[in-house]
């Protein structure tokens, strides 16, 4: 299994617009072979000792294999999502992890 933590930072005031596009794309991603989990999360105010901030959200993903993740990255709906959100996103940090032995 592969875990992905993607930190998406929208341009100021654009987070909700990016999240709308993200949510519209979710059914296609969840239908992909090897997708176990895929969803956005935002800061839980008042909890924890660090926050991502008002312009950011985190995508929590689980994939059955590196091959499934690679197919996801190359999927036409992901390319279209990237094109629709390109002007709204300031930065992306994609962390790909494996379970610790």
TrEMBL record:
Span of domain ABM: 2-97
Gene Ontology MF: a single term: monooxygenase activity
InterPro entries, per database record: ABM_dom (IPR007138), AI-2_Isomerase_LsrG (IPR050744), Dimeric_a/b-barrel (IPR011008)
Keywords recorded for this protein, A-Z: Monooxygenase, Oxidoreductase
Claim: Ribonucleoprotein is one of the keywords in the record: no
PROSITE patterns from the UniProt entry: ABM (PS51725)
UniProt-listed Gene3D superfamilies: 3.30.70.100
GO cellular component terms, semicolon-separated: cytosol
A Pfam match: ABM
Signal peptide positions on this chain: none
Protein name: Antibiotic biosynthesis monooxygenase
Source organism (scientific name): Teichococcus deserti
Taxon lineage: Bacteria, Pseudomonadati, Pseudomonadota, Alphaproteobacteria, Acetobacterales
């Amino acid at each position: 299994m592969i875990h992905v933590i993607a930190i998406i930072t929208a341009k100021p005031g654009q987070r909700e617009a990016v999240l709308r596009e993200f949510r519209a794309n979710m059914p296609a991603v969840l239908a992909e072979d090897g997708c176990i989990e895929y969803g956005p999360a935002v800061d839980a105010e008042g909890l924890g000792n660090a926050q991502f901030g008002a312009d950011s959200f985190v995508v929590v993903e689980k994939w059955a294999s590196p091959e499934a993740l690679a197919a996801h990255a190359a999927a036409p709906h992901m390319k279209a999502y990237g094109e629709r959100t390109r002007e709204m996103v300031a930065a992306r940090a994609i962390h790909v992890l494996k379970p610790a032995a």
